[in-house]
Write a structure and sequence with these properties.
- This protein has 271 residues and is of the alpha+beta class.
- It has 2 domains: 1-35; 41-270, 3-Layer(aba) Sandwich (Extracellular Endonuclease, Chain A), CATH 3.40.570.
- The protein has 5 helices and 11 strands.
- The strands form 3 sheets. Strands 1-2-3-6-9-10-11 form a 7-stranded antiparallel β-sheet, sandwiched between helices.
- The longest helix is centred in the first third of the chain and has 34 residues, at 2-35.
Amino acid sequence: MLFKGKKQTDIIVNTFLDMKKIILIVLLFVGLKAANSQNIDIMLPSEMPRESLIHHKTFSLSYNTSYALPSWVAYKVTNKNVDKTSGVSNNYKEDPDVNIRAANKKDYKDGGYLMCQLLNYLDVMHINDATDETFYMTNIVPMKLAFYNHIWLTAEDLIRLWISTDKGFEVFTGPVIKADAPFTTMGKNKVSIPNRYYKVVYDPVNKKAVGFVFRNGKASGTMKSYSLPVDEIEELTGIDFLPGLSEEEQNAIESTVDYSFWNFELEEELK
């Protein structure tokens, strides 16, 4: 009887240990899922085939290893005013969530292009420990100096001026890949050099959206001259930017630009 009792006890103990292992495995899986879950409360564009969907504290992105570029970066802009005098260390580094071919700083050496952020660190400086992630190489793309200074930064400034509610805007941006590939490349990792970049700005409160397509290297023109309906950018990129909306809502928002809503005259304040 004593032997049987011990055997039963061993069975109970082993069963308990097995259950404990299962629970730990489940908790680990849940933890990993949480670590890779979306951290920003915005509607994300469509997932792209054979690309890596990555989530960080203040932005998400779809990374295309074939071109060493993100197809899109999604983030929120909520600050109307940013302090451009507040410098930060340009600590460009590899994205810890990418374990496949990606760009690094050496690829840009002698390439003739700036290392430029798709999500500007200025737009997340009000969030603790957020600026560091904006220097991940998955958020970095090659741009010509004059284009970056005169066009890209002006577009970012205009978007900030447009903010009228606490919710701000949801912004989706990246290189035009589908319509423009293949590209010339640079560096050991063959980083593609995009011909064009796009921005899509969505106001979730007023259900309005506007798109932009810019040519990399062009340094003149008004923001209005670069604007176009979101539908046209979706055609160029193959990306559905507002998949969470009904088809009726998408048609109404994406088919045209409401110039009575998007005040392009504010660009004069930036000169």
